Amino acid sequence: MRTQKRIIVSSVLTIVMVASTAQAFLGAKNGVLTTYADIATANYTDALNDAKTLQVALKGFTNNPTAATMANAKATWLNARESYGQIEVFRLSNGPIDAEEGWHTAYGAPEGQLNAWPLDENMIDYTTDTKGKRTSGNIIDAKGSFTPSGNKSVTVNVSNITPDALAALNENGGDANVATGYHAIEFLLWGQDQDYANFMKDGVTNGALTAGQRPVADYTTAKNANRRKQYLNAASALIVSDLEAMTAAWADGDDSNYKAALLGNNADSAKNIDEKTALSQIFAGMGVFIKSELANERIAVAVLTPSEEDEHSCFSDNTHRDITQNYQGFKNILFGTYNGVDYGVAPIDALKDKSKLMALIKSADAKVNQMNALARTSRHFDYQIRPNDSQAKQIKKLKNELRAIGDQMINVAKANGVNLSIGDVTDGEETQL
Amino acid sequence: MKKVIILTALLFTFCANAVDKVFFEQVIIDNVERSIVSIKQINASIKQGQSKKSQALFAQLVRHWKKVEATYMLGDLNEDFLDTPRYIDIFHGNNEDIKAQLDLIISTSDDLSYALYKHSHKTINALEYLLFTQDLSNARVSAMALIMAKSIERYLQEIKSAYQAHQAKFVQDEQFASAILLNTLVSSAYALKEWRIGDVVGLSKKYKDHADAQRAEYAISQNSTVAILSILQAHKQAIDAPNYKDFGDVARKFGASKEINKTTDYLNQAIAQVEKMQEQDLLNAKGKSLYQSTDRLMNSYYLSLMNKLGFISKVLDADGD
């Protein structure tokens, strides 16, 4: 219900920019924007480096598939998610990762190719269905070409599973037809964890601390082993190339890229982004990300259903880290820090009364820490959201607090000279719960 | 003596400004209690295997529950209860096909204590599916229906207890109470006109020119107009009641007489229209006309009243809503 009232407000109110007297606007370059951009540079660079490490590990695994090389590939995937999780806060702000308008759409807006979720894993490889039978009719077992399900899907030649073929299949025929990105690799490394018939029964890979259990044999003796290897390498190549485009967009020393435009330094002045517009998009994007994407889509849907299918990393059971790092990414920008380093002027600096926001953050921190501790020692996220688990209530509270933090971005923005409404920090298309 | 005068003055001010607690007791609490009685009666009827009676009682449950839902402010009083209605009712809040899931559960022999693990499996929507499409003489169906009824009752009891625990918070601050009530009414009016009427008759943004009776809230039991009327009646309880101080009185007190009178007129028009409607009328000119009426009602709440009553948005902003 609360969700709906925010949507109503959103449909009526509009962003009103106020004439600002904020300190942030007095300098030639806005300090908040500089900090934001510098963190983006560092974070995207880390994500790219981690993705390259993953790519090397996947090549090592596919060249010599053993339990050890598979474990190493999994470890590098988990590590890559640590840096990638933090850069998600740069979404929803019309930046290069998912720009919907502006010259920088030329960067390809690769978010959907990098991190689309939830995915229909049945499209990629075999699973165990509700009746305990193994499924077929997927990209891996396709001969020649593959046509995804859904309206207006287009047939793609998959004789060889290449980056181009996967890119053509991704979201071809529907949003759930995800063929690329971290979660496609996750599925090919871990395999199915969820019992589609009943996740309480957990009959596929039973155990509170048990993730997907794909056998190494899938890459050695099993039918289509070579196609799985092709898939992993093609998917990781796409991740690397997409992140290379993003690091180029945010690189220092390039007066023609997005970072230069955001800071008003692009040699082509027509590409420069108005400072107030940039701040407005960034603050609103932060709000929408933490409130509608993280709290609603990634936590609320999973815990309120409850549904393992709707947890973020449902094959590897790494969802607790996704949530943690997404939240950390938000805090990086809010506080102007990254990996413990102070990057300069932060959005929160201008906020006079920080008490309510800091209280929410303190409380959310405690719940995130608790979720992590339990995921390591007692039960993964998919067990913590079970209706009879005491932790489900805490995760719901975390969801509420993250939504409230998203709303607090209105006050943060105001302190920095930008007026936002509830509607601006809420995705009007968020799942109704 | 001086202290007595001050205390008396403070007390008088407090009482004069407080939202009438009669509203809280006779509307908010009473609607929940009636819903609890209804679900208990359904429970008993299911146990007796009385299919027709259960169906009739279901309509009564819809009537009372929709009033609770239309004026649900508990999440604003305590965020722990933000999501509780979702455990009772998933209309427009869930993309799952619970019919297929329930069919699957009926066809298996899995222990129901975990087969019905999803909250959506125990909602009023799930209960409707069982009562109106399945055979209650089937032991498994009956057992499932009882689990659903018990779950609904449990959450209604939680709502009642929590409301009672937070009554003081509601009645002690007139502006806060008015703000969360108006916000709730706006939300309810939007959902009414857009989802319960517009989506069916093909006037909503999402389903423009694509009418479909299956989108009606209670398409299976044909109780959709019952629900719509009940929601509108709940609004009347909140803004146009003769026997206690309601939101209409508060609005007039703050100089919004013209606005609240117009809102009340739109509400009464909509009620009069629904009272003459059958379920199938949601697809024809009557449905379209009702959509227009409820659209005017929502705009009147949102554009006229909220603008006139400046304190509403201040309270909501301060609360982070």
What's a concise summary of this model?
By secondary structure, chain A is mainly alpha-helical.
Write structural notes for this entry.
- By secondary structure, chain A is mostly helical.
- Chain A has one domain (2-425): A middle domain of Talin 1.
- Chain A has 13 helices and six strands.
- Chain A has helices at residues 2-12, 31-63, 67-87, 111-115, 163-169, 182-190, 225-249, 258-262, 275-304, 319-335, 355-377, 381-384, 390-415, and strands at residues 16-17, 145-146, 156-157, 337-338, 341-342, 418-419.
- A two-stranded antiparallel ribbon of chain A has the order 1-6. Chain A has a two-stranded antiparallel ribbon with strand order 2-3.
- The radius of gyration of chain A is 22 Å and the shape is globular.
- The termini of chain A are close together.
- The model of chain A is unreliable at 1-28 (pLDDT under 50).
- By secondary structure, chain B is mainly alpha-helical.
- Chain B folds into two domains: 20-165, no CATH class; 173-321, no CATH class.
- Chain B contains 15 helices and no strands.
- Chain B has helices at 2-17, 21-47, 51-70, 74-77, 98-107, 112-115, 124-133, 139-165, 167-171, 174-201, 224-239, 247-253, 257-275, 285-308, 310-319.
- The termini of chain B are far apart.
- Classes of the chains: A mainly alpha (433), B mainly alpha (321).
- The A-B interface holds A 1-2, 4-8, 12, 130, 197-201, 300, 304-307, 356, 386-387, 393, 396-397, 400, 404, 407-408, 410, 422, 431-433 and B 69, 72, 75-76, 79-80, 82-83, 85-86, 92-96, 104, 110, 114-115, 117-120, 183-184, 186-187, 190-191, 302-303, 317, 320-321.
